[in-house]
Amino acid sequence: MQSFLSKTLLLLALLMSVTAQAKTEAPGIDEFTSSFQEHPGFFTFYHDKASAKFYLEVPRQGPQFIFQTSLPWGLGSNDVGLDRGQLGETRLASFHVEGNKALLVQHNTEFRAQTRNQAERSSVDQAFADAVLYGFDVVASNDERVLIDYTPYLLSDVHGVSKRLQQTEQGQFKADTSRSVIYPERSKAFSENTELEAKVTFVGDGKGQWINQVAANADALSLHLHHSFIKLPDAGYQPRKFHPNSGFWAHSFKDYAAPLGESMTVQYIPRHRLNKKDPIASQSEAREPIVYYLDPGAPEPVKTALLEGARWWAQGFEALGFENAFQVKVLPDGADPMDVRYNVIQWVHRATRGWSYGS
After folding, report:
1. pLDDT tens digits for range 80-124
2. Cα 60–64–68 angle (5° rounding)?
3. Bridging pattern class, strands 322-323 and 284-285
4. Do residues 32 and 140 touch, judged by C-beta distance below 8 A?
5. CA separation for the pair 276, 279 (Å, rounded)
6. Quick check: 287 and 269 in contact, CB under 8 A?
7. What is the dihedral of CA 219, 224, 225, 229, to 10 degrees?
8. CB count, 10 Å around CB of 94?
């Protein structure tokens, strides 16, 4: 009788363990998202209209990508500097999935070893800390991907708005999730990039002079924050060394594979990829021309002047042997200036007269 009771108790314990394990396992992605609107692309995301959430599909063995944040709708103060169209930090990132957790990791690109020796590259990677930008709980999964609720991070102050307001002595602010929502109108997925946006409200003691000049309510600032996931380009891009006489700026990092006695500082010039269709011809069209799009919100006669002035750059490219390689057009209807596929000359209004800039 005692043996029978022991076996029964053991069986019950095993059944309870299996049941508990089944409850903790994440449901399948197809099952979890069956009622959501799917947006397939570089990173597929799902819109749950009922709960006003965005869910992001993340590969278990995902590649590195560019993570870019920006500020599509700004504050309007020249002195504070939180302008419409302002770019935030550009990061090399990846997702690290382990169990029921997915980490968004920013890789440290300031210190590298430009060598074929994998052990040497790894030694530098391990010597300098990366950063985990956010940790997500896995809500659903399959053999190849996991699904995360991206909404909390999208509603956070990833652009550093509160810090900027404090630095300019406009007051102490923080993001208020109860007054913030996702923004589906400007959230889209494409083959090489995925774009997510939110309307985020910052609350605080708006005592600064500049913030009171421009805000509808200086204690509650509703701005838009944008997140871009961008596929890395192929390996065919050749970086160009920076020269101080170029009249441009440099991107710098430390190369620990540099020979002893030589500087470890490497400087490259940021530039577009531009190649001729006919590499040996003195004059040739470009394989892919550089196109900048002008913000249609620029007022006349400024819009016409911007178009004409920007197009003058084409003369410089022609002198270098590129035909029709630099073009300027008005941004077409339906295109989003924060979509990373477009180079945009944006018109920015401030409390003072606006001017244009773009990236």
Report:
1. 999 988 999 999 999 999 999 999 999 999 999 999 999 999 999
2. 115
3. parallel
4. yes
5. 5
6. no
7. 170
8. 19
Selection from 121, 126, 133 nearest residue 91 by Cα:
133
pLDDT digits (tens, 9 = 90+) for 214-258: 999 999 999 999 999 999 988 888 899 999 898 889 999 999 999
The C-alpha torsion from 114 through 116 and 122 to 125, rounded to 10°, is 20
- Quickly count: other Cβ atoms within 10 Å of residue 283's Cβ: 11
Identity of the residue numbered 147: L
The residue with tokens 């999964």 is 141
Question: Distance (Å, rounded) from C-alpha 73 to C-alpha 83?
Answer: 7
DSSP assigned state of 301 = T
**Any idea how long the chain is?**
359
Q: What 3-state DSSP class applies to 237?
A: coil
Our measurement of the distance from residue 234's CA atom to the centroid of its chain's CA atoms, rounded to an integer in Å, reads: 19
First to last CA, the chain: 80
Give the pTM.
0.87
Angle at 76 between CA 188 and CA 352, to 5 degrees: 140
Burial 248-270 (b: 16+ CB within 10 A, else e): eeeeeeebbeeeeeeeeebeeee
CB atoms within 10 A of CB 272: 13
